[in-house]
Automatic annotation (TrEMBL):
Any GO molecular function: DNA binding
Keyword RNA-binding on entry: no
One Pfam family cited in the UniProt record for this chain: Sigma70_r2
This protein's name: RNA polymerase sigma factor SigL
Length: 190
């Protein structure tokens, strides 16, 4: 409908006045009072846009059919919101693992590693963090496997001693070298 067509605008206002209250009651029974206003507004918006297609004989039935479609859309939207809300509630109530202790341990390991000689740091990084075996580390370092085994044993011993020295009194003693999982993937130890 053209907005400047005064006659059509007058007919639409008559249609609105004649059917607004009953469509509001219809929508309220279907979707409740909170959404009923939106349904009726949506129904009359469609009627305004398609006013030329409205049957002159019985516009009431057309309005009810349109209201049913708007109600169906409202109910689908409500179901989507409810599903999303339920997912959000599950996510909000899910327990989140506390990684604060791991962060502290990670920082402690980095500090201890930084305090070692460059040779000790290199052998530990290659074997413990990079996952190279003794033969691969020997190739990287350009020495024999026996030399790598000796260097690795000594570096681990020095690392463990320094790590134990940094533990707070009363803390559980560290029984073995921290594993690479203490270092976040993509973060280098340097």
């Amino acid at each position: 409908m053209e907005p400047d067509n005064a006659a059509a605008r007058g007919r639409f206002e008559e249609l609105f006045d004649a059917h607004y209250a009953e469509l509001t009651r219809f929508a309220t029974r279907r979707v409740g009072p909170d959404a009923a206003g939106d349904v009726v507004s949506g129904t009359f918006l469609v009627a305004w846009r398609r006013f030329a297609e409205l049957p002159a004989e019985n516009p009431r039935a057309w309005l009810y059919a349109t209201a049913r479609h708007v109600i169906a859309n409202e109910l689908r939207g409500r179901a989507r919101r409810d599903r999303l809300s339920a997912k959000a509630e599950v996510s909000a109530t899910a327990t989140v693992e506390d990684h604060a202790g791991q962060v502290g341990e990670h920082l402690r390991v980095r500090a201890v590693l930084a305090g070692l000689s460059q040779a000790d740091q290199e052998i530990l990084r290659l074997t413990e963090w990079e996952g190279l075996d003794v033969a691969e580390a020997a190739l990287v370092l350009g020495c024999s496997r026996t030399a790598v085994k000796v260097r690795l044993h000594r570096a681990r011993r020095r690392f463990a001693a320094r790590l134990l020295a940094t533990e707070e009194p009363g803390a559980h003693a560290t029984s073995r070298l921290p594993m690479p999982s203490l270092v976040a993937e993509g973060n280098s130890i340097s």
